[in-house]
Structure formats: structure tokens, C-alpha cells
Design a protein that fits this description.
single chain; 5 helices
Length: 128
């Protein structure tokens, strides 16, 4: 710059002949303003996103429970015998006592399974 001031062909003879310097635009200021705006938007959207995720997770769990993929936690005492344990799930869904279900199943088996098959199964069963 000093060379152009000193040259004889230049119209600028001194630094006072130059216009005032332009105000500098800092890209860092623009970036920080943009970052601040994005951060405030994120702060507003995070709680709503968390609530939406929680809601849809709850609905998915409710749907799976209704369909039968997820078993609800048992609220009664654990069954004692193997037969009761096997009959407990259908009884709970059907809303009937396990003894009534066991009697109904036994009657259906006696009607539809030949006696020879029943005796061979009974001979191999450890509970007799």
C-alpha cells in the first residue's frame, strides 16, 4: 500500500486520501449466532421428542401385551404342581379355574384318543 501511495501515477498521495476502513464481518459471529439458534431449537424439541418416544414405547408394549407376545407379570403366588403351571396361562386367559380346565381337557382326550394309546402314555409317564 505504501508503494501505491508513493508512486507518481497514483491519485492517492497520503493515507488521508483513502476511504475509512470497512467494518469487518466475522464469519465466527455468524456461525455462533447460528449455533445459538440451533441450540435453542434443540432445547425446545428435546422434551417433546422424549415424550413422543416414551409414548410410542408404551403403546408398543400395550399392543404386544394385547397380542400375547409379552406376558404380563404374574400377580398371584407361583403354582406348586407342574399341571397347575401348565394350565395357569390358558386358565387366566379363559377366566376359569385350572381344575375345571383340567377336567375338560381330560374328558376331551378320553373322547378322542383310543384307550390303548392312553394306557401306553400312562405307562411311560413318571407321575403315573
Amino acid at each position: 500500500m505504501s508503494e501505491t501511495i508513493r508512486s507518481k501515477s497514483s491519485a492517492v498521495k497520503s493515507p488521508s486520501d483513502l476511504p475509512p476502513p470497512r467494518p469487518e464481518r466475522h464469519p465466527a459471529c455468524l456461525a455462533s449466532a447460528l449455533q445459538h439458534a440451533l441450540a435453542s431449537i434443540q432445547l425446545l424439541h428435546r422434551p417433546f421428542a422424549a415424550m413422543a418416544i416414551a409414548f410410542y414405547a408404551w403403546r408398543l408394549l400395550q399392543w404386544k401385551t394385547e397380542v400375547g407376545v409379552v406376558e404380563p407379570r404374574p400377580r398371584e403366588a407361583a403354582p406348586r404342581a407342574d399341571g397347575d403351571r401348565q394350565n395357569q396361562r390358558p386358565c387366566g386367559r379363559l377366566g376359569m379355574p385350572s381344575k375345571d380346565l383340567a377336567v375338560a381337557i381330560a374328558d376331551a382326550v378320553r373322547e378322542h384318543v383310543p384307550p390303548a394309546s392312553l394306557s401306553s402314555v400312562a405307562a411311560h409317564e413318571p407321575s403315573g
